[in-house]
Each structure stands twice: as C-alpha cells, then as structure tokens.
Amino acid sequence: MKHASDDAVAVRLSGLTVKRGHREVLSGLTLDIAVGKVTGVLGPSGCGKTTLLRSIVGAQANVGGDVRVLGLPAGSRELRTRVAYATQAASVYDDLSVMQNLGFFASALGAPKGDAERVVDLVGLRNEAKQRVESLSGGQRNRVSLAAALLGSPELIVLDEPTVGLDPVLRAELWDLFARLAGEGAALIVSSHVMDEALRCDRLLLLREGEVIADTTPHALLSDTGAPDPESAFLEVIRAHEGGAS
Ligand SMILES: Nc1ncnc2c1ncn2[C@@H]1O[C@H](COP(=O)(O)OP(=O)(O)OP(=O)(O)O)[C@@H](O)[C@H]1O
C-alpha cells in the first residue's frame, strides 16, 4: 500500500553512490525531495552536482543504491514526459529558430498546441523567437533549453545551472518563475555554484566532495552559522564539517 506522504515526494534517494572513472563521485546519499518546492543543489565546481542531477533523471551510468522518481525507478520510460531536464550545455538545434526548436520539442513530447508560445514568453525570448539559435548569445541559448524543459507540464523539473551567463535582472526573473512553478505544484531541483542564489530556494542541499554536508533552508543556514551572507555561511559549514570529521 502507498503511504499518503509518498504523494509529496518527488525524488527518493536511498544510498545513492556513483563512480566515475576510479573515483567515487557521490557517496551514499539518502534523502527525499518534495513536490511544490525549489530545492537548490549548491556547492563548488566538481563537488558532484551534475552527477546527482544526472542520476535523478536516469542519465548517469554506474549508479549504486536506489533512485525513485515520482514513485518509479529513475529513467523509467513512463517518466519521459513527467520529468524535464535542462543540461548546462544548451541541447538545441543551431540551424533552427527558437520557435522551430520549441515546436519540434513540443511535438516530440506531445505537448499541447500553443505550448511553444507559452514557454517562449516564460523565458523572455519573445523578441528572439524567429532568430536562429546559432545567432543567439550564450545566455539566450541556455534560455531556449530552459524553455524546452518547461514544455508540457513536467512534475519534476531538473535544471543544471540555469542562470549561468545571465544578467541580474533576468536571473531574478527566472528565480521568480521557478518559485511560481513550485507554487503550482511542480518539484524543482536547481543546481548552482552561485551562493547568493541559495536565498531563492526553499531548501538547500550543500554538496562537497560527493557528500551532502548541509540539508537546510536559507533562513536556517544564515541563522545557524551567524554568517552575513550565504557565501560565508557555506564556508562556515565546511569548516564545521571538517572540524567534526577530523
Ligand atoms: N569519467 C570521469 N572519471 C573520473 N572523474 C570524473 C569523470 N567524470 C566526472 N568526474 C569527476 O566527478 C566529479 C563530479 O563532477 P560533476 O560534473 O558532477 O561536478 P559539478 O559539481 O557539477 O561541477 P561543475 O559545477 O563544475 O559543473 C568531478 O570532480 C569530476 O572531475
């Protein structure tokens, strides 16, 4: 029988361990990620953020332990339209326009007619809609990828560093959008190495060398460490973790 609370769980990790090459990149992660919230995966370059996201969307090899997504094993066929993933490198066609790309992905996903129009507005690319992707700036290309990830109505939206290369205004707008989507009931998992973005998340997972060293909220991160900003708070958490580990 299903537990009632399972409906609120988008992702359940049980002892997730990943080896890449000879290295253990993630070491036994056990945690649940809730629906209706923006969960931030924060941490320095190389700490395992992308590997964690790839494991959740079923794109990672050599995964040990168990990863359940919306109650199903990660990567299950049934999850194809229910889970969206935007990678760091924009995965769109250079020789097509923004709208042609979105139209293509919309029909591949079976998204409703008009959905490409909806998402192009969501990511603020209306003026560039007819432009070929190859002529866009890096930040604009990433937004095409993000728009493609928002097609249909995914229940879980996994975004790998979606705000890289964006100006502060656009960044703030996208974080507003993430909060709105979570408010509508989606689960969002957003990675970033910009600690200030931590403040926009409902929950924070701070990752370091493949381990979750803090599972907290922006408010608790600042109040527990007494640090003035998330960057110093993160350093404080690392110091405390290393002190405790030695
Ligand atoms: N094939 C491989 N062999 C050995 N190590 C690997 C391999 N692929 C990735 N790694 C290592 O795994 C670690 C985690 O990589 P991952 O891409 O998940 O980090 P990240 O936190 O997303 O980094 P960034 O913020 O720079 O994108 C890194 O230290 C990386 O060097």
From TrEMBL:
CDD domains of this UniProt entry? Answer: ABC_DR_subfamily_A
User: What's a single GO MF annotation on this record?
Assistant: ATP binding
InterPro entries (alphabetical):
AAA+_ATPase, ABC_transporter-like_ATP-bd, ABC_transporter-like_CS, P-loop_NTPase
Q: Which PROSITE patterns match?
A: ABC_TRANSPORTER_1, ABC_TRANSPORTER_2
**Keywords linked to the UniProt accession:** ATP-binding, Nucleotide-binding
User: ABC transporter domain spans which residues?
Assistant: 11-234
Q: Note whether Disulfide bond occurs among the keywords.
A: no
Q: What is this protein called?
A: ABC transporter ATP-binding protein
